[in-house]
Design brief:
Length: 305
Amino acid sequence: MKNTIYFGIVLIMLSSCHLYQTSQFNGKYNSFLEEDETEIKTEYHTIFSKKSDGSYVFRQFFPETKQITELITYASDKNTKNGKYARWSDDGILRSEGNYKNNQEIGQWIDGESKGKYLQGKKEGQWIATNKKGQLSAVYQYINGIRHGEFIIYDTLGQIVNKGIYRADTIFSQSVISEKTTEGPLKKIKIMPMMKSKSCAQMNYDERKNCSDIAMLTYITKKLKYPIIARDYGVQGTAIVQFVIDTDGSVVDINVVRGICQSIKDEVTRVVKSFPAWDPGIIDGKPVKVLYTLPVKFKLERFYK
């Protein structure tokens, strides 16, 4: 079982401005428009359209395959999310789906591997989580966006391994039924994986962990380049890469869940593959696999003609 760590966004920005024509992609994604939609602006990986009711729709694609990766519906002011929303990975797997009203999530949503209800932009009531095989893994209760009430955690055989009560997003009580799981609050990583760095080696744990995180983000910032093709076509957005720090400290199972376009996907993969060695994560004195999720934002300053 892998433990999951999420990092903040790494920003890769091209400071020089680039001049290109937006009209060269007109019509590229028109087959995705509904009968009441009219193309407004199309770029290499996006299309913005207007519906007959005055609302607008933004769609983003993985351009090499024309796989849609995001759909956002806006009200007539073009800034307020209002209506259907959906997001897919580059391979077409649905990651999120629901509706917005005045920029707030509302009603039933699929949110990653969880399903439940939003009320005015906050999770409310029962949320059910499943694993990648579609098996029930956890049930939580939410009030006003925080976990509050009974929770149940299941193992891969569908057996309850932990249950209890949350109060204001903090475990109030729990009954550990099995020690076989690392899901939820039952077990936590005692020692986090750390990228090896001479400048961090002699620090205490907390200082070293912070220093290691900074070293990794600095390494990415220095090594990652804005691909020429992506720059020339004005592609920007947030790529999401996942990778595992194995029990021997090696970087394995690199997966760019959201690559924006092929050249960015290849570049992010190249840099993660080049990571120096890590010290593995430790639980109860034993090395464990740790899954990292890292967003990388690519941003251009650009002019149109």
